[in-house]
């Protein structure tokens, strides 16, 4: 039977930490989301938002789509929209890495860069104005239920299946919060004792893909009750861990994966035993033009 690109979204491998985890009674497993065809965990949400939007009639082949993104969601949306023949404009801060911009354009998307000093919030404001004034349709990953439902349908069940129900802790960076919301919802239904750990930057830290949102921009899909614990990570810790993941575990990923790993290792030192699953949300090759690996 022939497969399509959609068939290889998800079912990403779980691999055990061989070096970084030093607690012999704790198993630390990395969920390798860079193995998705678009190179990140965001393929899941992008596919579910576009497919469900078309099925519900919320969008059509004639829709002009627009979305603000810090990178990975944009790449995923560009890939999925291209396959469906949809017109999409992606808006991101001008300090985004050139690999991200070029990849979105390669998939056929229009890319608009907004001033870096207003960050992703400025990109979100730009996209919302285009919706109000020019008739664009925003998928709105921050408020779209099909974002978190992608992880309820896929990421959570995969983790439960691949750990044979042994998972005790789930660790995820929090950006749009779709990954942690959907995975938490599923895992808590299987076993309410599973601990869900979110990762945020410390005050003053900047970690692409991990945010501590101002109240006005807090994702509408976020429900604090679904997160048992939040571990804060600073910029330098996240940067250093991204380098260590590559050098010591052979896992080439971005800074948000470094941040999640810092949190997972801190957690591993505080528990007597268990199985921790931590999300490695993308691949490191889209950060090569930045100073991350200098």
From TrEMBL:
GO process annotations (BP): cysteine biosynthetic process from serine
InterPro entries: Cys_synth (IPR005856), Cys_Synth/Cystath_Beta-Synth (IPR050214), CysM (IPR005858), P-phosphate_BS (IPR001216), TrpB-like_PALP (IPR001926), TrpB-like_PALP_sf (IPR036052)
SUPFAM superfamilies, per the entry: Tryptophan synthase beta subunit-like PLP-dependent enzymes
Catalytic activity: O-acetyl-L-serine + hydrogen sulfide = L-cysteine + acetate
Keyword Amino-acid biosynthesis: yes
Cited Pfam families: PALP
Residues of the Tryptophan synthase beta chain-like PALP domain: 6-282
Keywords linked to the UniProt accession: Amino-acid biosynthesis, Cysteine biosynthesis, Pyridoxal phosphate, Transferase
Binding positions (pyridoxal 5'-phosphate): 72, 175-179, 256
Domain of life: Bacteria
Modified residues (N6-(pyridoxal phosphate)lysine): 42
Catalytic class of the enzyme: transferase
UniProt keyword Electron transport, yes or no: no
Cofactor: pyridoxal 5'-phosphate
Listed pathway(s): Amino-acid biosynthesis; L-cysteine biosynthesis; L-cysteine from L-serine: step 2/2
EC number: 2.5.1.47
Annotated GO MF terms: cysteine synthase activity
Family label: Belongs to the cysteine synthase/cystathionine beta-synthase family.
PANTHER family the record matches: CYSTATHIONINE BETA-SYNTHASE
Protein name: Cysteine synthase
